Every structure is written in structure tokens, then in C-alpha cells.
């Protein structure tokens, strides 16, 4: 994979306020401790579960990660 998950999700920033992927991307961008270089599902998933941010729900993460894998693996 050429890009980290963080870099991939940044492409969803600036979308509509009711778009769950755009909301996720904005919340992730504003989270200074987000693992920006990570490419693996397990560490990212664990981070989001522990953080439990309502703007970064696991269901949206799963959908984004699936798109990420399809594009970059």
C-alpha cells in the first residue's frame, strides 16, 4: 500500500455535514494522536475502540477500511 489509512481518509474531508465519511475524516484530522502512518486494521481498530469518539464510529471505519484495502492492496 502506497498510502497510510490516514492519508486515504483525508480525501473525504470537506464533504457535506451529513456525510458520515466526511464527518469521520474531519474528526480524524482534528485528532492529534491518531496513528497517521498506520496501514493495518488491528491497530487502527483498537485505537478507535479505545477512543470511542462518536464522530469516528467503528461502522464507518470498517467501510472506509474496506475501500482503502480495495484501492491500495
What report would you give on this structure?
The structure is a single chain. The protein has 73 residues and is an all-alpha fold. The radius of gyration is 11 Å and the shape is globular. α3 packs antiparallel against α4. 58% of the residues lie in helices and 0% in strands.
Rg over CA atoms? 11 Å
Strand content is under 5%
- pLDDT < 50 stretches: none
Helix content: 55-70%
Describe, in short, the structure shown.
It is built from four helices and no strands. The protein is mainly α.
Task: Detail the topology: elements first, then pairings.
Elements: H1 5-9, H2 20-30, H3 41-51, H4 58-72
Top keywords for this entry?
single chain, mainly alpha, 4 helices, 73 residues
Amino acid at each position: 500500500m502506497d498510502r497510510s489509512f490516514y492519508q486515504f481518509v483525508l480525501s473525504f474531508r470537506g464533504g457535506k455535514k451529513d456525510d458520515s465519511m466526511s464527518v469521520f475524516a474531519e474528526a480524524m484530522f482534528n485528532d492529534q494522536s491518531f496513528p497517521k502512518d498506520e496501514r493495518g486494521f488491528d491497530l487502527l481498530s483498537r485505537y478507535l475502540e479505545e477512543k470511542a469518539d462518536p464522530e469516528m464510529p467503528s461502522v464507518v471505519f470498517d467501510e472506509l477500511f474496506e475501500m482503502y484495502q480495495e484501492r491500495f492492496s
